[in-house]
Structures are given as structure tokens and as C-alpha cells.
Amino acid sequence: MTMMLAKTMETYISNYTEEWMEQILKKIEKLMLEHDAISPELIKKKDIKLGLRNPDGSGVVAGITSKGIVIGYEKIPNPDGTYTVKPVEGKLYYCGYDACELAQRIQEEGRYGFNEITYLLLTGELPNKKDLQRFEEVIADRRPLTKLERSIIMQEDVNYNQMYALHSVISHLSRCDPDPDSTDIKDVSRQCINIIAKAPVIIAYNYNVMRFRKGGDLFITKPNPAWSTAENFLYLLRGERPDEYEAKLFDLALMLHAEHGGGNNSTFAVRTVTSSGANTYMALCAGVASLSGHLHGGANEAVMKMMKDIKQHVKDWNDDEEVEHYLKLMLEKKAYDRSGKIYGIGHAVYTKSDPRAIIFRQKAEEFAKMKKNLDEFNLFAKVADIGSRLVQKYKGTVASPNVDFYSGLIYKMMGIPMELFTPIFAMARFSGWSAHRIEQIIHDKIIRPAYASSLDEFKEYIPLEKR
Questions:
Q1: Which tens digit of pLDDT belongs to each residue from 435-463?
Q2: How many CB atoms lie within 10 A of CB 219?
Q3: What pLDDT, on the 0 to 100 scale, is given for residue 31?
Q4: For residue 21, is it within any domain?
Q5: Rounded distance, CA 344 to CA 161, Å?
Q6: The overall pTM is greater than 0.90
Q7: Which of 6, 198, 259, 296 could be cross-linked to 68 through a Cys-Cys bond (beta carbons 3.0 to 4.6 Å apart)?
Q8: What is the predicted pLDDT for the residue at 9?
């Protein structure tokens, strides 16, 4: 009887506190909306660069880098001291080299290039044959997980979100490092190379363990030291060596996603955390955390979900007018998720074209022919062409498909599950993040921008009984 009474009392107190919690949350939400919201007039008056972006949409220059340069527009000076933004064809450079040309030239030579791109980003120079061979041997030697590293994955609590799992494992890798907090360039370089080498294995193992916990078979095998990063990842995921075409297409994706300048959200997060003196594991985890946000890393997933909806609502995929009608409804917030967006169209920097998307479109069509999936590719291409035109008409900005518009379709045709689209992005970007971390350590300056106050006046303290 006493136990029943205690249980009833416990339930009563719990319900009572939950009601109070709900009231407090409503009060906090009301006050936050009242005090934290800011008007466009105030932003203009104080000359605030929200999101570190200028009024014309271009990024505020907050640093300098030799790693990645992204070009999507030119600034034409005006007589009054202002300037006009002129859209241009997009360009991406890795350490001064045209990134798309690099990737295509490497593929024309019949080679896998992700390790070569990684070497370039870390050192600033393209390797000769001897240096590349040594670097690939170093990557192959560090790719397998130790017993402790494998146990970290196996002991991880059930976590079906693959980005959360990746973040957790990377942070725990510090337990396997005898000197995790060193910021000596040699130690940091060793740590970064280890993570770059192990990331594909961690991502594949994380997924296989998650699938096992959902009732599937557990498939864990060791990477092959003679194979490329792309071959090993697809092998660890599937259990069989991929054919050369798919492996080199995946390698191309890794090369084109490896770096994108210092101003993108995840790279800036890595540089900001690095500038505080944080260790390599925490800094690279900041990149993973940033990439988990749907406005940055989940773009190709968003495209695939949007295309699924379009396929359900557009009866005739070959009818331009029907496709255009539905895309107009989306832009008018009357269809799909009512966000007013066509996902995969437009970019923060690129205007007339994303050079990576041009390559991916050609590869997606080529792959679709092989997979007898041209109908789906043609619908993607139609949405890209019509969508770009409509975005310009509705929003007044020059827009084109970005790399994420086609990458999801390519991964889908490879049989890669959607849960891994963003972790694959991270897998490639660890190379760029690592290069920027090392560069930021050398620059040795903490990142600390200023924030203006939105308040009109300072306030006097009021005693509790008088409030």
C-alpha cells in the first residue's frame, strides 16, 4: 500500500513539474521572440553583416588561405565607390590548380586520385611518383582500425543517425592517441592523416553495425592495402570489390568534394575551433557537427526527397509544362514542403554554373545509360534546366544546379543508402578540413568577430520583490 502511494505521489509530482516546464518553455519562447528578433531596418542602420555576408550576398572576407578558392562572380567597381556583382561561370581551385581539370586529368591517366588531391591540399604541391607512392603506402598502413578503435564502434550506444555516430567515434579516437592535445605541426599532420585514412572504414563499419542492430547480418572485414580509398569503401560497404567504373566514379566524387575554400560553414567551424587551441579531434568534430545541419551537408538528401515528391505528382515526366507547373507551385510555397525552394538549385557563391555539377551531370547521364535509368536522369535534367530559369524569374538571382543536385542520383544508382550521403561528404572533406586546420595553426590567430548590441539602452537592476 505504501509503495502504491509513493508511486502515485511520484507520478503526481512528475505531471505537476511537466506542466510547469511547459509553461516556462512557452514563456521563454515568447520572450526570445520579443527580445531576439531584429528588424531589417536595424541591421541596415548598424551595418550588420548577418551570416558574415554582404548585402549583395557575397561573403565578408574574414581570412586568407592557399587551399581552396571558389569563384562565382566578379565585382565591377562603380564611379560612386560601390560595386556591381557580375555573375560568371564557376571555378574551383585547389592550391592554385583548377580542381575539375585536376580530377579529369587524373582520371584520363587511368588512376585513382583522392590520395593525390589530399597530398596536394596538405602540402600545397602535387606529388611526384615517389612521394605519391610513399603517401599511398602511409594511408594504406593507417587505414585499418586497431582493436580499441573497433571496440569504440561496437560499444557505441544504438545510434541510427550516421552523422551522430561519426561525430562520436571521431571524438573518441583521441583515446587512441598518446598525445591528443599536441598542436605541433608534425603531430597534427599525423593525426589528420590518420583520420583521413580511417574515415572511410569508420563510416562503413558504423553503417554495418547499425544495420546489424536493426536485424541484418553483421559484415565487418579489413580493408585491402592494395586498393584505393574508393574501392575499399565500396568493398567494406558491399562485401565485394566494385567494378572499376563505379570505383573511379566514386573516386571522382571524393576528389570534387575534398575542399571548397575557407568560408563554407563546416571549414570555417574547423578553423574557428582550431584557432582556440583545441585539439585535432575536437576541431574536425566541429566540421562533422556543422555538416550535419540540413542547410549545409544534407543538400543531396534534400534533392532526392524532393525528386521523390516530384515523381509522385508529375504524371508525365516528359511534359515540360507539367514539370514547370509543379516547380512554380513549389516556389510559391504551395507544394512539397512549402519552403519556396527548389533544392539543389543555387549556391552561396556560384551563379552561372557550379563546375563540379557540370561534370556530375555528364557522369550521371553516362551512368544512367549503363543502369538503364535514363528516364529518371532526364527528369533530373529537366528539373535542373526549368528550375534554374524559374529561380531567376521568381527570386531575381542567377542560379544553376549545384554539385548536390546530381551526386545523390549517382550514389543512388550505386546502391549507396541515403543515410550515408552526408557521411560520404565528410569522408571527402576531412582532407580539406585537415589542410585548413594546419594552415590556421600556422596563422596563429584566434577567430573572434564582433557583435553589435540590438538594445537601445542599458538597464538598472530591479530587486526581486519589485519585479
A1: 999 999 999 999 999 998 888 889 999 99
A2: 16
A3: 85
A4: yes
A5: 22
A6: yes
A7: 259
A8: 63
- As a dihedral over the C-alpha atoms of residue 235, residue 237, residue 239, residue 245, rounded to 10 degrees, the angle is -40
**Predicted confidence (pLDDT) at residue 20 exceeds the cutoff of 90:** no
What is the residue whose three cell numbers read 553516362?
366
CB 212, CB 218: distance < 8 Å: yes
| Least confident span in 209-223, 229-243, 436-450 | 209-223
Residue 179 in grid coordinates: 598525445
**Could you report the per-residue pLDDT of 31-90, keeping only the tens digit for each?**
888 888 888 888 888 888 988 988 888 889 999 999 999 999 999 988 888 888 899 999
Q: What is the DSSP string of 24-54?
A: HHHHHHHHHHHHH---HHHHHHTT--GGGB-
Task: For the beta carbon of residue 7, count every other beta carbon within 10 angstroms.
Answer: 10
| Domains held by the chain: number | 1
- Region for residue 352 given its phi and psi (left: phi exceeds 0; alpha: psi -120 to 50; beta: otherwise): alpha
Burial class (CB in 10 A: 0-12, 13-18, 19+), 174: middle
H helix or E strand, kind and range, residue 243: none
Gyration radius of the chain over CA positions: 25
Q: Does residue 64 sit within a domain?
A: no
Domain that holds residue 13: 1-31
27 within domain boundaries: yes
How far is it, in rounded angstroms, from Cα 358 to Cα 105?
16
